[in-house]
């Protein structure tokens, strides 16, 4: 924008200068021409009184002196055919002036010829002739044009400098607004724009600051609600734990207590993730192998109770992904929880984790149930909407986890005709990257 404003002012200044300087340059050339012709005419007319009264020797001397003084050729043609001064052939203008007694200025290829008729001499009408060359007609014009060009260039430079300064006062606030908006988009909610520049830009800066403040207020309200939710959930969990400890069967008490511990861990992780997600500067990292193994082990106990066969294929080495352990665990829980919620008891399922090309990671969950609806597409699943009567958040949680790492979620049919859900996680950034 700054460059465009400067170019606009430069172009406008050049057009104005051209419209002003071209007529002025033409006028200067015309003035120089008229001045040279007037000077030559005045010098020739200075000899008129001498031509009418002086004797021939004195007249010859006067013409030679005038030629030497003026620097241009002056010729005197007498009525008897004699020629005094600078020798020159009789032109048609000289013949006409001698015949009619008129004074003339005639344009010639090399300049202008000036002839003046003088009557009163005994031998007839005399004619004074002088010639003004083209160089003399344009004397001083080139220097004047150079001065005009220099003046025009100086005005253009001055105009561009002033335009650049003015453009800077406009562009600087806009650039700052852009920087602040990008900082806000990167979750730096402390960023604020200075109200500077034209009134319209100051108004935009104030509006952006108000928006950032409002976002902070809404996030603060959200954190407070999450904190309140944590207290509300702790109370029933504590009650369940106490009831579990009161069971008479030690094995049953340990089993229920373990489930309560898992539930409490999940609730704590969910609250912690919701509370601090907006303050995170980048995605977390975890070992997908360990996290998936832990969550599959959790669901395996329930699978055994419901008669489900579980097939697990995990790599022997760590498989790092650009997703936090809590978030990846929530995604795995969402996918496995859907199997238990939407397939009958005894339905087998499989979990496979493997590395993909280019440093990617692929998590595949398949089951032998009735499968997904025929029109189910991962990108067309609105958050909170389900075709199976659930909350509609499970697949969205998994999809967000994959997308946060630069990957995606895919839906399809498994080998046994059931559902096949694939989470592809993007590669880790190079060493030193975020």
UniProtKB/TrEMBL annotation:
Localization per record:
Cell membrane
Histidine kinase domain ranges (all copies): 228-429
One GO molecular-function annotation for this sequence?
A: kinase activity
How does this protein lie in the membrane?
Multi-pass membrane protein
PROSITE patterns, sorted? HAMP (PS50885), HIS_KIN (PS50109)
Q: Which residues cross the membrane?
A: 144-163
What's the EC number here? Answer: 2.7.13.3
> What does the UniProt keyword field contain?
ATP-binding, Cell membrane, Hydrolase, Kinase, Magnesium, Manganese, Membrane, Nucleotide-binding, Phosphoprotein, Protein phosphatase, Stress response, Transferase, Transmembrane, Transmembrane helix, Two-component regulatory system, Virulence
PANTHER family membership: SENSOR PROTEIN CREC (PTHR44936)
> What is this protein's record name?
Signal transduction histidine-protein kinase/phosphatase MprB
Per the UniProt record, the source organism is Plantactinospora siamensis
């Amino acid at each position: 924008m700054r460059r465009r404003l400067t170019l606009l002012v430069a172009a406008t200044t050049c057009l104005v200068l051209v419209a002003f300087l071209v007529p002025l340059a033409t006028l200067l050339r015309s003035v120089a021409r008229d001045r040279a012709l007037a000077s030559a005419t005045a010098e020739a007319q200075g000899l008129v009184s001498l031509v009418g009264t002086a004797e021939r020797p004195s007249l010859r001397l006067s013409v030679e002196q005038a030629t030497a003084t003026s620097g241009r050729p002056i010729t005197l043609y007498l009525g008897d055919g004699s020629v005094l001064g600078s020798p020159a052939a009789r032109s048609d203008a000289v013949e006409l002036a001698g015949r009619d007694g008129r004074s003339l200025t005639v344009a010639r290829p090399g300049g202008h010829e000036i002839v003046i008729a003088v009557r009163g001499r005994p031998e007839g009408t005399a004619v004074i002739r002088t010639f003004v060359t083209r160089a003399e007609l344009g004397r001083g014009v080139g220097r004047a044009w150079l001065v005009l060009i220099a003046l025009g260039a100086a005005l253009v430079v001055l105009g561009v400098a002033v335009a650049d300064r003015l453009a800077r006062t406009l562009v600087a606030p806009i650039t700052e607004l852009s920087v602040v908006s990008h900082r806000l988009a990167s979750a730096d909610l402390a960023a604020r724009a200075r109200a500077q520049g034209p009134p319209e830009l100051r108004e935009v800066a104030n509006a952006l600051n108000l928006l950032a403040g409002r976002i902070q207020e809404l996030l603060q309200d959200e954190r407070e609600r999450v904190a309140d939710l944590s207290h509300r959930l702790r109370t029933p969990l504590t009650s369940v734990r106490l009831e579990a400890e009161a069971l008479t069967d030690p094995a049953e008490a340990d089993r229920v207590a373990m489930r309560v511990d898992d539930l409490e861990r999940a609730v704590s992780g969910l609250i912690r993730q919701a509370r601090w997600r907006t303050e995170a500067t980048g995605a977390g990292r975890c070992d997908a192998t360990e996290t998936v193994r832990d969550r599959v082990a959790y669901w395996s106990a329930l699978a055994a109770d419901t008669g489900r066969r579980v097939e697990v294929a995990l790599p022997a080495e760590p498989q790092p992904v650009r997703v936090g352990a809590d978030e990846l665990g929530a995604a795995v829980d969402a996918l496995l929880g859907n199997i238990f919620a939407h397939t009958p008891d005894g339905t087998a399922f499989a979990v496979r984790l493997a590395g993909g090309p280019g440093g990617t990671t692929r998590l595949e969950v398949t089951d032998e149930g009735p499968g997904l609806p025929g029109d189910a597409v991962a990108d067309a699943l609105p958050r909170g909407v389900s075709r199976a009567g659930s909350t509609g958040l499970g697949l969205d949680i998994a999809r967000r986890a994959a997308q946060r790492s630069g990957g995606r979620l895919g839906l399809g049919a498994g080998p046994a005709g059931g559902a096949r859900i694939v989470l592809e996680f993007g590669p880790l950034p190079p060493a030193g990257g975020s």
